[in-house]
């Protein structure tokens, strides 16, 4: 019993130390601690209501929370304060794009034009903002022509990116081939992997391609390869679990991936820990483990109390 209490005390100290390590808003955002990030950022604004960087971080927290209107509002505020900041335009465009995906067609049309404007503005302000060029190329590939979609323009973005990042350019060339239906997309995706020196990120992009084309066995194989490949700038456990969940494949494997992701010390903004807990809850619920699912939904809400999917899921599983 004494050993148990000692362990509890050490655990409390470790948790406290971990919390202290994540004190900056950027660290809280990266760790997926949405509620703490919002409190810290709003406290900063109370001291300096014209801090554009704080508004940008708020935009990104709300983006994680899937609160698109809030994210857009914060993104607009950051740009009003620093209109020449390429990254701020990129994040506003991303928030508008996600809202468009979740809106009725009429609203989506209006938002799509705004997305195009923001991405193009981001590229104009900083020609070497490769993330903005990549997002702009995706817009050109996905949007219909009457909203500004243009496969040739997407390829032009890849041509510029190729001067700086052959792997990213290769990925965009693959997406162009996929949209054109030429039959060479898979080959191009594999060239991007080679150019990246076997990066897990581009293996995962190949896995996404296989899912879109219905090659689910190949998708799983690509996910396994991603997990075995170098991944300094990607989150294959998180992305792999997401793919398996959406494809309805290998739920036990997806659960294991999320446990591994949540146990690591290097979370990513693109894979918020609270969303990982939520996905884990969904997977457990699909396995019939409703009590364990509820625990994961509660864990998600403990970090991000405004995350509606977890709220709804917890209410449903608790009935």
Structure report:
This protein has 319 residues and is mainly alpha-helical. Helices cover 76% and strands 0% of the residues. The protein has 18 helices and no strands. The two termini are 36 Å apart.
Distance between the termini: 36 Å
Strand content: under 5%
The class by helix and strand makeup works out as mainly alpha
- SSE arrangement, N to C: HHHHHHHHHHHHHHHHHH
Number of helices: 18
Low-confidence segments, ≥5 residues, pLDDT <50? 1-22
Silhouette: globular
Main sheet properties? none
| Radius of gyration (Å) | 21 Å
Task: State the total count of DSSP E strands.
Answer: 0
Mean pLDDT: 92
Question: What is the helical fraction, as a range of percent?
Answer: over 70%
Keywords:
319 residues, mainly alpha, 18 helices
